[in-house]
Fold this sequence. Notes:
Layout: E1 2-3, E2 6-7, H1 16-29, H2 32-36, E3 42-46, H3 51-57, E4 67-70, E5 88-92, H4 93-102, H5 107-122, H6 127-141
Parallel strand pairs: 3-5
Antiparallel strand pairs: 1-2, 4-5
Amino acid sequence: MSERGITWSERFAPTLADFEALAAEAWTRIPDSFRALCAGVQIRIEEFPTEDVLQSLGIESPFDLMGLYQGIDLGRKGAGETGALPDMVFLYRRPILDVWAEGEDPLGHLVAHVLIHEIGHHFGLSDEDMQAIEDSVREGAS
């Protein structure tokens, strides 16, 4: 039961805690100027999106959503707002693992991609802007 010296019976899929560590590492590699704009955004790791989230987005399979931003974007925030929930980025472990298992990118790169993508949409960044930031994160990981 060994492939290239790895005993798979002793291996487990990365846990929620492992994902938290990967997300924290990716966060530190995001440029300081970008991170400064994200003050107060919380990052949460969940197994899957909730049924309510899937229904609100019209998504049938929980495997079709790897991440989500929930909150009020900076362009719509007003001074003195009360009662609003904190801005959050959700990374969904099982859908990310599914994509990782089918692809060639390291898991840390995939987690960073989803994290940057979700934060980027919150700030209204274009796909090109998000790609440039992701490229800078990848370069820092090399």
